[in-house]
Amino acid sequence: MSDYSQLVKAYDIRGEVPEQLDPAIAERVGAFFVRLTKASCVVVARDMRATSPDLAAAFAAGANSAGADVIDAGLGSTDYLYYASGSLDMPGAMITASHNPARYNGIKLCRAGAAPVGEGTGLELIRSWLETDEEPVHADRLGTTYHRDLLAGYASHLRSLVRIEGERRLKVVVDAGNGMAGYTVPAVLGDLPVDVIPLFFDLDGNFPNHEANPLEPANLVDLQEQVRYSGADIGLAFDGDADRCFFVDEQGTPVSPSAIVGLVAARELARNPGAAIVHNVITSAAAVEIVREHGGRPVRSRVGHSFMKALMAEHDAVFGGEHSGHYYFRDFWRADTGMLTALHVLAALSEQPGPLSELVAGYSRYTASGEINSRVTDVARTLDAVEAACRNADGAVTDRLDGLSVDLGDGRWFNLRPSNTEPLLRLNVEARDEASMAELRDWILTFVR
Hints:
With 449 residues, the chain is of the alpha/beta class. The protein is 36% helix and 23% strand.
């Protein structure tokens, strides 16, 4: 390969195996990662995909050749790797393609303390070294790979951050989607006061039941049916590498991630009065209002974990949340963890007698469109046209923090932002009711389409 732009993304390395990513490339990435971080030791974990063991071994071999020792932490979720990087204070690599189909795999990288490695923080250098076909420098002293299971420590750390001490014993359906939650959920929830009904806990990177992407409604159907059938209090759905968690209530209705942002923010602010909470540009205005009502300081971010984590560090934020289902915690090295979020929601539910639908209703105040993608020929010109049209609206406030955001007042706002990889514009609209939202959505789409 000479063009690695389709493999090395903004936040990670991800592509088809072996056409775009193979052990030879993984080995070079391992060596270049040591060159980037100047680490004497790195930790590596992997997901359940059939190609992950070979890619993990190749990455470790590359790191060893550059003189670094490697701690092979074995199977784990992405937040398990973040725990390893944070608790051991060393750079880490996670072999995973997250929610992508079986033919894909990839590598997520972080510096010591789970600090992100992405575009602008080192990943562009690794891509450049790959593209120029540079040969990694082999050290005089070869590193050694050690095997170490950190799962018990990971589970213990999460349980130390949130305690489920309410009077209710909850019935919880968990859909692991044949991904890594099938491995980590028993370790974390196993001895807590919850009764877990497992769905698709067998680790299988071919995803025989459904894709491990809970953002798609079709992949929640099995969970919704099981929650209703079993009379469960709540349903949890994890993506393939289990760093994201999505929720359905006792009726099987999906809970907005923005409502989860508001709920967890309120809990964290109760323990950390006046703290900052980071949210991205497409998070519901309700979450921002809730942060202010609980005495917190809302901080607005571009979409993406590298931006979220940077602002969390800058403002010493106790929590950050994205509408995509990524949730970040200061007590977890500012990294995203779906499992810790699940513990917060379970704890909140156990502490009151009502159903989850009633609990989250107080954090859901507006109607949202969901993300609508449109293919356009000229992204910049389309954004300019929409912005020009909005200038004629009374009281409209616009900004370009991430694409185009427009606040039209009376609870109506939208964000229109470009894709990083395709000529697409992604539209999110919110308003006080369905009719107002639909009217605004359709008006914007007349310009976009």
